Amino acid sequence: MSSASAHRDYRLPESPPEEWLRIEWPKGEKEPTKNCLSRHNYLELKQQVGLGDFEGRGWRGFHHHATMSIVVYGFLISERGAFPSSGPVAKALFRQFALPKGYRPRGAAAAA
Predict the structure, then answer these.
(1) Are 22 and 42 in contact (CB under 8 A)?
(2) Inside any domain, residue 2
(3) Per residue in 23-74, pLDDT tens?
(4) How many domains does the chain have?
(5) Which of 13, 56, 107, 109 could form a disulfide with 61 if both were Cys (CB 3.0 to 4.6 A apart)?
(6) Closest CA to 46 of 28, 70, 22
(7) Closest C-alpha to 72, from 101, 97, 41, 102
(8) Which domain holds residue 28?
């Protein structure tokens, strides 16, 4: 991030996107140990994809959970731009599949 983006931003035609500064400062430490600058993506990852829902006990499990959350988030972001935002998209893009006559899903009770 350049110093120009934080300096004299009142001259910009519109406000820059919101950014978060995340800081890790464990109890007992003299100074913060980690920090990162983030946009709203972290909040979306936690609320929409479930990044904050991990209840495991190990680093490996959390790593797998975080990886899958990020993959799902990336997929959802890519899909946002794939379809127009209004109109009957499903009928135009996907044809209706017909089931064969007498089709019965596996495990369904036999017809009387």
Answers:
(1) yes
(2) no
(3) 888 899 898 888 777 767 777 788 888 888 888 888 898 889 989 988 888 8
(4) 1
(5) 56
(6) 70
(7) 41
(8) 9-74
